[in-house]
Amino acid sequence: MRKFNFGYLFILVTVVFFSTYEVVSKTIIGKVDPFQINFLRFFIGGSLLFLFLLIKRDVKIDRKSLMIVSAAGILNVVFSMNLLQLSLNVAYAKAAVVAVIFSSNPIFVSIFAAVMDKEKITLFKAAGMFLGMLGIAVISINGQAFRDINILSPLLALMSAGLYGLYTVVGRRASSKIGSIKMNAYSFLIGSLILLSVLLIKGLPAFKFDCSAWPQVVYLSVFVTGIAYLIYFMGLVRTGAGSGSVVFFLKPVLASVFAIVFLGEKITLNLIFGTFLILLGMAVMFYWEKIRQRFV
């Protein structure tokens, strides 16, 4: 009897956690400042990952890796995640739309990898990028008259996805040397401490906000940021890095379902068609060679 690979279960649980991020964040708008949410998320989540490193007695990091990890933390925590939160705070922003656009970040990973790491962009990758960007445009327009389009929320989500793609390329340089858990533990903590200085400059308290939002804040910090990242990397160890792409294939689908069930959002034809184009684009980018070899 074949032994069950728990790595796929870990990946599946991670997908569910990640898919709830935009929906849960939407429920605390007006109760917690976006900068507060991200400070708490990454400070608490980073502390959990660092605690795991302490248990393993593996906290040492060299100066060069620390510099790269610091850059990754600034890109992810200070810029990308705050833009994502701000995109949800825009009037009439849809959690499902934001989730789908952010899930296009693997497209930007390929772009930045080509520029920074000299990775070749093949014809099928270029075709996949085109399909993905076309899907983003379809979702952003969302079937409205041009004069009525509120482009700010999709634009902020797109900027967040782009910066997350850059963070991924920068972060994997450190990950290849010190490991993904250590890279994220340090980048989360460094990014959150820099974000703390932003809160102080803005005159915002770090831990004081509407008490009714604490359950969501704890969930986003402990489960979506801490536990989800930890089991994600545990899953990748057991299944291989390629399986990680399933997170960004399933996230927009699940996030849309959660938005319908818990927020009462209406899913438009534009969102469905745009999501299909983005998923098709990523499938072409990641799996075209395997598909071609199987059928040719």
Automatic annotation (TrEMBL):
<dbReference type="InterPro" id="IPR050638">
    <property type="entry name" value="AA-Vitamin_Transporters"/>
</dbReference>
<feature type="transmembrane region" description="Helical">
    <location>
        <begin position="35"/>
        <end position="54"/>
    </location>
</feature>
<feature type="transmembrane region" description="Helical">
    <location>
        <begin position="269"/>
        <end position="288"/>
    </location>
</feature>
<keyword id="KW-0472">Membrane</keyword>
<feature type="transmembrane region" description="Helical">
    <location>
        <begin position="66"/>
        <end position="85"/>
    </location>
</feature>
<feature type="transmembrane region" description="Helical">
    <location>
        <begin position="213"/>
        <end position="234"/>
    </location>
</feature>
<feature type="transmembrane region" description="Helical">
    <location>
        <begin position="151"/>
        <end position="171"/>
    </location>
</feature>
<dbReference type="InterPro" id="IPR037185">
    <property type="entry name" value="EmrE-like"/>
</dbReference>
<dbReference type="GO" id="GO:0016020">
    <property type="term" value="C:membrane"/>
</dbReference>
<keyword id="KW-0812">Transmembrane</keyword>
<feature type="domain" description="EamA">
    <location>
        <begin position="155"/>
        <end position="286"/>
    </location>
</feature>
<dbReference type="InterPro" id="IPR000620">
    <property type="entry name" value="EamA_dom"/>
</dbReference>
<keyword id="KW-1133">Transmembrane helix</keyword>
<dbReference type="Pfam" id="PF00892">
    <property type="entry name" value="EamA"/>
</dbReference>
<feature type="transmembrane region" description="Helical">
    <location>
        <begin position="127"/>
        <end position="145"/>
    </location>
</feature>
<comment type="similarity">
    <text>Belongs to the EamA transporter family.</text>
</comment>
<feature type="transmembrane region" description="Helical">
    <location>
        <begin position="246"/>
        <end position="263"/>
    </location>
</feature>
<feature type="transmembrane region" description="Helical">
    <location>
        <begin position="91"/>
        <end position="115"/>
    </location>
</feature>
<feature type="transmembrane region" description="Helical">
    <location>
        <begin position="183"/>
        <end position="201"/>
    </location>
</feature>
<feature type="domain" description="EamA">
    <location>
        <begin position="6"/>
        <end position="140"/>
    </location>
</feature>
<protein>
    <recommendedName>
        <fullName>EamA domain-containing protein</fullName>
    </recommendedName>
</protein>
